[in-house]
Each structure stands twice: as C-alpha cells, then as structure tokens.
Design goal:
Largest sheet: 5 strands, mixed
Number of strands: 10
CATH architecture of the largest domain: Sandwich
Strand content: 35-45%
Distance between the termini: 131 Å
Protein name: Ig-like domain-containing protein
Helix content: 10-25%
Radius of gyration: 53 Å
Shape: rod-shaped
C-alpha cells in the first residue's frame, strides 16, 4: 500500500469515516505524515478504500510460442543432392581413371653370349584411359632401379618399358629380372635367362 502512493496519486476518500479520536497522553502526540497533501494512515486508522486499493502493476509480457521443428524434411533435399554429386564423382573417376589389366615380361634372347646385352621388355596392358604407370626393375645381381614412370595417352591400351642388362667376362650366370608395378595398382612380372660365355 505504501508503494502505490509513489506511482499513483490516491483519489480523494469520499467514505464517511466515524471519528474515533484516540486521546494520547500529553507529550505523545504524533503528527501524521503528509504526501502531496494526503494523510497517510497506518494501523487501525487505515480507511477501507485505501486498504482495498490495488497498486499498479506492469503488463504481463507474452512470449511467442516456439516455431515447430521441421525435422529432417528441411535438410532432406540438400542431403540428397550431395549424395548424388558424390556418387557421380566416384563413378566418373572410376570410369576415367587409368587401370592396369595385365603385365608381362619378355626377351628375345633366352641366352646372352659373351659381352652381350639383354633387352628385357615389359608389356603393360591398360584400359585405354590416360594416366601414369609407376614401376621399378629389380635384377638378381642385387641392382634395383629408381622409380620410373610411363605416361599413357587416351585410347592407348598397351605400353612397353625396357630394361637393358649388359654382361661382361667369361662364365655362366642364371639371370632373373623382375618388373614391379607400383601404381595405379601393384603387380609383378618375372623373367629368367642365361648368360653363357666360355
């Protein structure tokens, strides 16, 4: 009740109030408080109109209802498009990537004569797609070549790689050469021949 007088000026009290003056002993008279000319009464002296007056309150705030969730329907179309694009790229890459179908190694000389050179040929059969084949030659005398590369153009289904192995001196040696394919797939082909010099 006290706080309401600071926000809203009380209306004049038109209720007839019975005069109930309490005689206080001399020297104990308490003057009433005054606010803008209105007497504030406390305790039994509060009028009925003032007791039932409600103070001003702020309007109740209304919170908007949350929007209903759309669930998976909102993201279904973008997810479907993403899956289709990934599938297309995977299919396109698999059909356009170079594939190795067969690897063979041959030589014209089954026997190499004195101070002769063996021409060993590796035949690479591909799917005709453009790309690069990485390979390495390994000889039975402990020699290993660096990683070599053969570039195949579009439409070319066969590629030949060569190893020249030169022998010197007298003797007989059972030689072996291996062609190791490193990429696009791993494969190995082997050939054996003889060096014969007496």
């Amino acid at each position: 009740m006290l706080a309401s007088h600071w926000f809203q000026r009380p209306e004049p009290d038109t209720t007839l109030v019975e005069d109930r003056t309490v005689q206080l002993p001399p020297g104990q008279e308490t003057p009433p408080d005054r606010v803008e000319g209105t007497v504030l009464r406390f305790g039994p002296g509060v009028t009925a109109a003032l007791a039932h007056r409600s103070h001003t309150t702020l309007p109740k705030l209304t919170v908007p209802a949350p929007r209903p969730r759309r669930g998976l329907r909102r993201h279904a179309l973008p997810a479907l498009v993403l899956i289709v694009v990934i599938a297309f790229l995977a299919w396109h890459r698999s059909t356009t990537a170079l594939g190795l179908e067969a690897v063979t190694v041959t030589t014209r000389q089954t026997t190499v004569e004195c101070d002769g050179t063996a021409d060993i040929v590796g035949l690479l059969t591909t799917n005709g797609r453009p790309g690069t084949v990485s390979y390495r030659w390994v000889r039975s005398d402990g020699t290993t070549s660096d990683v070599l590369r053969e570039v195949t153009p579009q439409g070319r289904k066969q590629a030949r790689v060569h190893l020249l192995w030169t022998f010197q001196g007298e003797g007989r040696y059972r030689a072996q050469a291996e062609l190791h394919i490193l990429s696009p797939t791993r494969d190995t082909a082997t050939i054996q021949f003889t060096y014969d010099c007496f």
